[in-house]
Design goal:
CATH class of the largest domain: Alpha Beta
Number of helices: 15
Low-confidence stretches: none
Mean pLDDT: 91
Radius of gyration: 24 Å
Number of strands: 12
CATH topology of the largest domain: Transposase Inhibitor Protein From Tn5, Chain A, domain 1
Structural class: alpha+beta
Length: 408
């Protein structure tokens, strides 16, 4: 990277942070937020505070940074509101997802033995419910909230974790619906909402989306029942798929992954689903490799083309990849604090960093650089800042340049 490009990148990062100025209650908070974002972007192996602080070019006080994240009383909500305002696209598909954050102990707020998607099993973890706007090849984080199991709202757990008094227990699907309302209130036009089977299987969740006037394509388990139009017998989705004629299935490609085209066989039929007297779409997907099937319900109009159903249903693939980047590249699951405010602070700053990287990707020409590729470019700049701040390191590097060491 050239000096001009490096300086321009740092200027854009500073300008990005300046747009949150009104959210900071103290001037020092702007400084600490900048250091934290630089830590998330630098080459520290783990995104907990000590490793990040140790690789900052202008680290300042470690205790000050720790207090800013863990103990300071600043609210995350204004930052989320501003982050939504800064998203450069105003329409798309809204993906609802929950992200499992594995934990070793029992002291971190919200932790308990529950299903962890990251591990694919019941494990000790936290779960974050989030939404992201999918527009083209990019996803933009719009909200994130830590799911609090019932036990964390009793006095024994609430007080040490500093969970606000008004907070009451809410199921994950209710949190998700509240976030959809927030996104709509922010002025986004949603083509549809997509979610996995943990949400799609809940009739109340689907009904809540319909009351909001929102289209959805949501995954559902194979054992959920439905009735084919023109029949009187309720059957499992697997049985309905088995009854479809071979001509009902079509091979469709929906994207391109690192290993080649992403494609499968799909079929769509109109059905009456549980707790609904109206007909809905049942979309069936069958793997070309092992024949494994997945199922989706949708309230899109009856004249919706099959390719449109597939495109929307499979748009979640993009968010799954980019959530992986959020955890592996920006350390969403590395936070070691135990308080509820601390977790919220880390989450919104990680989301700000994520969306900044998406803005940087959006600036580039096709083909769009991957998330790790754009982060590596920024890591080079952060490393250069670190070396210039360490005179001994810089002197050593210059001496090696003038007189290269022997081959190792």
């Amino acid at each position: 990277m050239t000096e001009a490009r490096a300086r321009a990148l740092l200027t854009r990062l500073g300008t990005f942070l300046d747009q949150f100025t009104t959210c900071f209650s103290r001037r020092a908070h702007r400084t600490y937020a900048s250091r934290y974002l630089q830590g998330l972007l630098n080459d520290s192996c783990r995104k907990s505070m000590q490793p990040m602080h140790g690789r900052l070019s202008d680290p300042g006080s470690y205790q000050g940074l720790q207090h800013f994240i863990t103990h300071s009383t600043w609210e995350a909500r204004p930052f989320w509101r501003r982050l939504r305002e800064m998203i450069p696209v105003r329409s798309g598909i809204l993906a609802i997802d929950d992200t499992g954050l594995p934990k070793q102990g029992t002291a971190s707020v919200g932790v308990q033995r529950q299903y962890c998607g990251a591990l694919g099993k019941i494990a000790n973890c936290q779960v974050a419910v989030s939404t992201a706007l999918i527009a083209g090849k990019l996803a933009w984080l719009t909200s994130m909230e830590l799911y609090l199991p019932q036990l964390w709202l009793d006095e024994e757990h609430r007080a040490p974790a500093r969970i606000p008094r008004p907070m009451a227990f809410r199921e994950k699907w209710r949190i998700a619906v509240a976030h959809v309302r927030t996104v709509l209130a922010a002025g986004f036009a949603l083509e549809a909402v997509v979610a996995d089977a943990a949400y799609g299987a809940i009739a109340e969740f689907r009904a809540a989306l319909e009351r909001l006037g929102i289209a959805y394509v949501v995954a559902v388990p194979y054992f959920v029942g439905a009735r084919l139009m023109g029949t009187t017998t309720r059957e499992s989705l697997a049985a309905i798929a088995n009854s479809l004629a071979p001509s009902a299935w079509h091979r469709i490609r929906w994207g391109h992954g690192t290993k080649g085209p992403l494609e499968a066989r799909f079929a769509a039929v109109r059905v009456v689903i549980p707790k609904s007297r109206s007909e809905r779409w049942l979309l069936c997907q069958e793997s070309l490799v092992d024949g494994e099937r997945q199922y989706y319900f949708s309230n899109l109009p009856s004249d919706t083309p099959l390719k449109t159903l597939v495109r929307i249903a499979r748009s979640r693939w993009a968010i799954e990849v980019q959530y992986r980047d959020l955890k592996t590249e920006l350390g969403l699951d590395h936070f070691e604090g135990r308080s509820y405010p601390g977790w919220n602070h880390h989450a919104v700053l990680a989301a700000m960093t994520f969306n900044f990287l998406q803005l940087e990707r959006r600036r580039r020409r096709e083909p769009l650089p991957t998330f790790p590729e754009i982060r590596d470019l920024i890591r080079e700049v952060m490393a250069a800042l670190l070396w210039t701040a360490r005179p001994g390191w810089l002197k050593l590097a210059i001496s090696f340049q003038r007189n290269p060491p022997l081959r190792i």
